[in-house]
Design goal:
The structure is a single chain. This protein folds into two domains: 129 residues, MutM-like, N-terminal (N-terminal domain of MutM-like DNA repair proteins); 124 residues, Helicase, Ruva Protein, domain 3 (Orthogonal Bundle), CATH 1.10.8.50. It has seven helices and eleven strands. The protein has a five-stranded mixed β-sheet with strand order 2-9-5-4-3, covered by helices on one side. The chain has a four-stranded antiparallel β-sheet with strand order 1-7-8-6, covered by helices on one side. The structure holds a DNA duplex (16 and 16 nucleotides).
Length: 280
DNA sequence: ACGTTGACCTGTGTGC
DNA sequence: TGCACACAGGTCAACG
């Protein structure tokens, strides 16, 4: 579920609430979610650590802790982090409970049990493969048009597959990729290396715009995404193609179609996003 | 080296 | 209603 705008919304919610707090108690109800170290060490090392800052890299949440430790969390498809009073009833799908020193808990909820937790030293962060190979942050200065062009140039790969690749650009997922390609009027099966210079520029701008709007609307809630207070985002009300199959395109009225591209459900306006670039 | 496919695990929606 | 099946926002290992 959560892509960059959703994870960023969660990060902001957490930072507001848990900066400076200490983990008093750690309960792990589903051990395999802890990828490293062992569950025993995870619990023992996390207890007593203070949260100095909450960061984000792509779709990973990073809790920077005292003693140069970092708690890394990936929500995968259906993970949620709730900030609730310790005496609130437990949601049935709660698998990790982190009790803070202010009477509140961070509770990790995950119906599909796909999430990943790591506790590492600051200097070990790149031992997580997904972090080591992560591409640039698309909303930071490091993501330049020059970099984007070098990424596409000569690539015989569908543009959608490339945009979903976290080692190319950090944080894009299926929803925002479909939205970006629509905004740039590019068919998802076009080969990355064959986009015109105007199309590359359009797509570069679309990535930044779509992600910024997603954050502004506090994320897209189609079913499982909620922020730390359990609130939904509102960006689903602003989607142009994602999950609009059969509905008229806002630009031209043509019904939006859905097909599988790069192994993912993909939403396209066949009129605005033609398969082949016009030879004119 | 690169690109595509299946697996991970569970819940929900659809069609018969 | 019951049931089977497709599908779900992500990532990684295992293929060709």
């Amino acid at each position: 579920m959560p892509e960059l705008p959703e994870v960023e919304t969660i990060r902001r919610g957490l930072e507001e609430r848990v900066m400076g707090r200490m983990f008093e108690q750690v309960e792990v109800l589903l051990p395999y979610l802890i990828k490293s170290p062992s569950v025993g060490e995870f619990i023992q090392q996390l207890q007593g650590k203070k949260i100095e800052r909450v960061g984000r890299r792509g779709k990973y949440l990073l809790f920077f802790l005292s003693g140069e430790y970092v708690l890394v969390v990936h929500l995968r498809m259906t993970g949620q982090i709730n900030y609730v009073k310790s005496d609130e009833a437990l949601h049935q799908k709660t698998y990790i409970i982190l009790t803070l020193d202010n009477g509140y808990q961070l509770r990790y909820i995950d119906p599909r049990k796909f999430g990943m937790f790591f506790l590492l030293r600051l200097n070990q962060l790149n031992e997580i493969p997904g972090l080591r190979n992560m591409g640039p942050e698309p909303l930071e200065e490091e993501f330049t048009f020059g970099y984007f062009e070098s990424l596409l140039s000569g690539k015989k790969r569908k543009i959608k597959a490339l945009l979903l690749d976290q080692s190319a650009i950090a944080g894009l997922g299926n929803i925002y990729v479909d939205e970006c390609l629509f905004l740039a009027a590019i068919h998802p099966e076009r080969m990355a290396g064959e986009l015109t210079s105007i199309e590359r520029r359009m797509l570069f701008n679309a990535i930044k715009q779509v992600l910024r709007e997603g954050i502004m609307h506090r994320g897209t809630s189609s079913q499982d995404y909620f922020d730390v207070e359990g609130e939904k985002g509102t960006h689903q009300e602003h989607l142009k193609v994602y999950q609009r199959k059969g509905n008229p395109c806002y630009a031209c009225g043509t019904p939006i179609i859905r097909q599988v591209v790069a192994g993912r459900g993909t939403h396209i306006c066949p009129q605005c996003q033609p398969e082949k670039k016009d030879a004119t």
